[in-house]
């Protein structure tokens, strides 16, 4: 169908109307316009009827989504449906704020997140959003590089194209991109929350490593990636670029420079999660082996904690050596010790280095149990006096902390700083944080 | 003023504590085990210093990430070949329309960029003789520019087929890339208005050679026959499927068709969508291509592309 003209007025199912302001983009399934709806700027996606096989399914699904409401503020969620127009329809959703960029722009190195900290934050936002989605009983079904908008400053994320989101026993039937699909889906199986986890891991791998996990030298050796080879490399014989046993699809130093640069930065836990996702067992035999979102959340939160500003040069560095050496200025910097949040419920707990301005976050303490969406709320911040070799922990929460010395219990009120000593334990909320110096 | 709750001086470090410090690692341990014996009777103070400052989540725009020199993700290449008839019969409106439409499509293609594949193209014109308008060195990126084609001479289609066969090669042709990179199925788009003048008029001679080439057999091929007099048989021989031959009876139709054919074929070739049940190792499934291009063609009102041939001179 032809594109809609500026100024066109369309009625909606909720009895409102919208006015087309401008054309934004054309995708495989439809056109996106900037519109005015209830006096506010909004986006309208108008389906191409010929391009969507189950148009009625989408209509019913979106109507249901509107009834349920947005899962969190990370989802650009449908708000209203248009009445039928030229054998098709559209839905209204919030407009992407201008400070958010396409994930593809990052993958194409057109822009970059402000730091590794922000990058890890981005991953945490994505994973926790999909944890929420799955906990609500939904599957995304067609997760790929086109579904995220990212704010470079801090890694905040908005998830778009949520019209596919539905209970996993009610698939949309759309064909997705093979390189993001779990092998079972490439071979014709139905997408579900398990296959979502594979797609999620592909996106995380691309975000951190900047190459595709299954596109090593073997996948690149085919003369032409046609349907046959798509099935072969992403469906029948997928092989991880860092497979610990079979190296036949490994990286090439000329082509996969990003891999050589970035894979070594991953902690063992991160490497293990990727290796498990892209293991032969998980990909070809048992998709329940794909890591759960909570496993990613814990690993990412610990990973993020090891990125901080170097106390000497104030640039971002990563703690991966003892004695620690700054990745930017190359100087050895002091780490006065470590805070340990003891683990519960299968979590190993968290280690927090005693470096200036490093924070304990709510998720360190509640292990992602108190909120459905990751909020990254700091509750404590490390202070240091390098000259004296002392460290403190500032209470930047709004609740009192308690610590016990010699049988007596003391209180640290908000805005106060506790001087840290080896072995002391601080009760924050319902968790014990122990100090190791 | 903060109040001291405990003794002023820290206690001396005991032997046990020293042992503890030796055992403890500041690095991520991944197994969650802390090899430390906790000391319970340690002095604690409130540090009398300034109030905590609000946390800034974002780091400075420098630091280790900026030193990583990250490159764009490795992408497949989607090759597009345009085979364009520049014989004398194309002179006038036909050639002008092709040039005009190609200018616009090139401008659009330069903005079509994604992390799945990278578009590169080559233009082979055939009149009296054949010429790689985009150069002999291979496929070039779509930078939005277009070299105006000038019509003159005969229609050396069979020669064009032979020339194309030589270049559809990874060892000595246009698919020999600096670093090892794979391609998505090549897209071959033919635009012609006449009969071949260099041998078989339906192009069978040249096409027989082309069909020996595996990349040709694995390509997506579409032909736009320009005008009533265009050789439909030649176009059908080229695509191997009547449904992939589109006839433009006037300038407006040709413009829309070029747009639809290029955008539709790029979408199909580069998307990497897996929905073919049992794909052939060489020949791609053209059903999706037909469906996609026809969808793009829907922008053209069928009545606008009538048989009057009124627009061609």
Summarize this, please?
Chain A has helices spanning about 55-70, 105, 115-135, 185, 195-210, 215-220, 225-235, 255-260, 270-275, 280-285, 295-305, 360-365, and strands spanning about 10, 15-25, 30-35, 40-45, 80, 90-95, 100, 140, 150, 155-160, 165, 305-310, 315-320, 340, 350-355, 360, 380-385, 390-395, 400-405, 410, 415-420, 425-430, 430-435. With about 425 residues, chain A is of the alpha+beta class.
Model description:
The complex is a heterodimer of chains A (437) and B (313). With 437 residues, chain A is of the alpha+beta class. Chain A contains twelve helices and 23 strands. With 313 residues, chain B is α/β, with parallel strands linked by helices. In chain B, strands 1, 2, 3, 4, 5, 6 and 7 form a seven-stranded mixed beta sheet that branches. In chain B, helix 7 (251-271) packs across helix 8 (287-297). The longest helix of chain B is centred in the last third of the chain and has 21 residues, at 251-271. Chain B is globular, with a radius of gyration of 32 Å. The N and C termini of chain B lie far apart (95 Å). In chain B, 44% of the residues are buried. At the A-B interface, helix 2, helix 3, helix 6, helix 7 and helix 8 of A face helix 1 and helix 8 of B.
- The first-to-last residue Cα distance of chain A is 68 Å
CATH C-level label of the largest domain in chain A: Mainly Alpha
Largest interface: A-B, 125 and 91 residues
**What is the CATH first-level class name of the domain at 79-272 and 282-304 in chain B?**
Alpha Beta
- Share in helix of chain B: 25-40%
Write the element-wise H/E pattern of chain B from the N-terminal end onward.
HEHEEEHEHHEHEHH
The CATH homologous superfamily of the domain at 79-272 and 282-304 in chain B is termed von Willebrand factor, type A domain
CATH architecture tag of the domain at 79-272 and 282-304 in chain B? 3-Layer(aba) Sandwich
User: What is the alpha-carbon Rg of chain A in Å?
Assistant: 24 Å
Mean pLDDT across the residues of chain B is: 77
Major β-sheet strand ordering of chain A? 1-2-3-4-6-5
Quaternary structure: heterodimer
Tally of discrete structural domains of chain A: 3
Strand tally of chain B: 7
Strand-residue proportion of chain A: 15-25%
Stretches of chain B where pLDDT is under 50 for at least 5 consecutive residues are 1-23, 31-50, 52-58
The largest sheet of chain A, given as strand count, sense and whether it forms a barrel, is: 6 strands, antiparallel
Q: Enter the CATH topology name of the largest domain in chain A.
A: Transferase(Phosphotransferase), domain 1
Question: What is the number of E strands of chain A?
Answer: 23
Give me the number of helical elements of chain A.
Answer: 12
